[in-house]
Structure formats: C-alpha cells, structure tokens
Design goal:
This protein has helices at residues 3-22, 26-47, 55-69, 79-104, 122-134, 138-149, 154-161, 165-184. The termini are far apart. It is mostly helical and 187 residues long. It is elongated.
Length: 187
C-alpha cells in the first residue's frame, strides 16, 4: 500500500468514526480519539525529533482542541486536513513559546562559578553580584533587579524606570548577556 492509499484509508477510518460519534455513538468516539491520538503522535514525532518529550503534550493539546471544536468540523471537508490545521497551530504555539523563552534566557554554563560554593560564602556572593550589577547603567540595573530578583512585571519595571515595556525587555536581556560575558571574562 503506497502513502496515498494509507492516507485515504486513515481519512476514511477517522471520518467514519467521527461521523458515528457525532450521531451519538460514545464507543465510536472513544475509538476515534484513540486512533486520532496514534495519528497525531506519528505526525508530531516526524516534526519534533529534537524535542521528543513534548510530543505527548502536543498530542493531548490537539486532542482536546479537536474535542472542544468538533462542532466546527464541516462534513464536506477532509477530516485529516481539519485535524492537521489544529495540530499545526498547536505546534506553532509551542515553538513560539519556546522561542520567546529561549531568546530571553541564555543558559549559564554549569562550570561557571557565579554563585558561592557553600553557605558560608553567601555574603561574598552577594557582594560579587552587587559589584557586577554596579557595572550596568542605572535604569537597566534597576529594571533587571526589579524583574529578575524582585519578581516585578515588565509593566512595573517600565513605570519605575521611565522606559517603554519593549525597552525594558531589551535592556534586561542585554544586561544579562553583558553580565554573563563579564563573568566569563569576555570584553
């Protein structure tokens, strides 16, 4: 069986089960969700080889979205196209979220000696951190301390520093990069 025949068989099976489920057959709906889950796992595994741990979460999110939006499915359109649209949106949402998170947070290397090695050295670490922070421009330092050490929101940091929210985000990101470079001994 070639890929076109497999795709057509999958479409027919899933569509038939969904139509039975929409007509009130609870057992068919359970079978539909199980079969759709297997189909989505294969779909995501092909696209998420770098993040295999996220596949199951995406499958569950997509199944929930299909369940919550099943009333929007139009019988004249192919079911798998409708499902793949939902699955693609869930994947894009994950990648956007991951991209935003990774763009703002450069990981520190494990061997980087930024913090104290023992509890007795905590005062030294605090002093070293203060010295590093003093190397930053005042308003960037204030925004960084507010957001990363005090847990303030971007809006609060912007209000306190007189900067726009986007300027605060950029300033904090650049300040973190500058601090990491200083600790690594880079110019």
């Amino acid at each position: 069986m070639d890929w076109k025949e497999r795709a057509a068989a999958t479409e027919d099976r899933l569509r038939g089960l969904l139509l039975q489920a929409l007509a009130g057959d609870a057992a068919a709906y359970r079978l539909f969700l199980e079969a759709l889950g297997m189909h989505l796992r294969a779909y995501y595994r092909r696209r998420m080889s770098q993040w295999p741990d996220d596949v199951e979460d995406l499958v569950q999110e997509a199944l929930l979205a299909v369940h919550n939006n099943r009333h929007t499915y139009k019988l004249e359109q192919p079911l798998t196209a409708w499902v793949h649209t939902i699955a693609r949106y869930k994947l894009v949402d994950l990648l956007r979220s991951r991209s935003r998170h990774e763009a703002l947070h450069d990981p520190l290397e494990e061997d980087l000696q930024v913090f104290a090695a023992s509890h007795e050295d905590a005062a030294d670490a605090h002093r070293d951190l203060e010295q590093l922070l003093r190397s930053l421009p005042e308003r960037h330092r204030r925004a960084l301390v507010m957001m990363k050490l005090e847990g303030a929101s971007v809006a609060d940091a912007a209000l306190a520093t007189g900067m726009s929210q986007s300027a605060v985000k950029v300033g904090v990101h650049r300040s973190l990069k500058a601090l990491v470079a200083k600790v690594k001994g880079q110019p």
